[in-house]
TrEMBL record:
It comes from Mucilaginibacter pedocola. It comes from the Bacteria. This is Conjugative transposon protein TraK. The lineage of its organism: Bacteria, Pseudomonadati, Bacteroidota, Sphingobacteriia, Sphingobacteriales. Keywords: Membrane, Transmembrane, Transmembrane helix. The chain crosses the membrane at residues 18-38.
Amino acid sequence: MFTHLKNIETAFQQNKKIVALVILSSAAVMIAAIWFAYHAYQQANARVYVMANGKVIEALAADRRENIPVEARDHIRMFHQYFFTLDPDEKVIDEHIGKALYLADESARNQYNGLKEKNFYNNVISGNISQQIQVDSIRLDMDQYPYHFTCYVLEKLIRSTSTIHKVLVTEGYLRNVGRSDNNPHGFLIEKWETVANRDTNINQP
């Protein structure tokens, strides 16, 4: 009888061990499944698809702090492209200036109003002048906020009779603002001014 009870007790202990092992194994499998699912979710979120020229391009998402200098320089470049790329067409000028003014504060609007009062844009239209620019380099100080920048631009004014090459230097500050369709980088140019704007040469046709 005692042997029978002892066998029952041994079997009961073995069952307890088996049940405990099953529970621990299930918990380990569940934790592993949760970890792999979370890892897969993080990888999926790191994939960004960008539409460019009708093609879908995969990009990798990253912490904004890693991209601040890149985004800041592109913001400055976009602003100068919009503000200074002109054609002898009032609608084109208004469209470009409108886009530029979303990227800067009233200092840019003041420069625009000053050029307008001097009939600069009317002269561009009446003289059939096209103005093209190329941003040569951008110096950006990320050690202090708002971020100070100096932008060096190569400018080309194309007339029917000549082409004028100029060097343009501007400076200002960048501060953070909310992103929007009109301001995708989330920066605003402040205290923007022209430091230098000089001719380099004139090419006759």
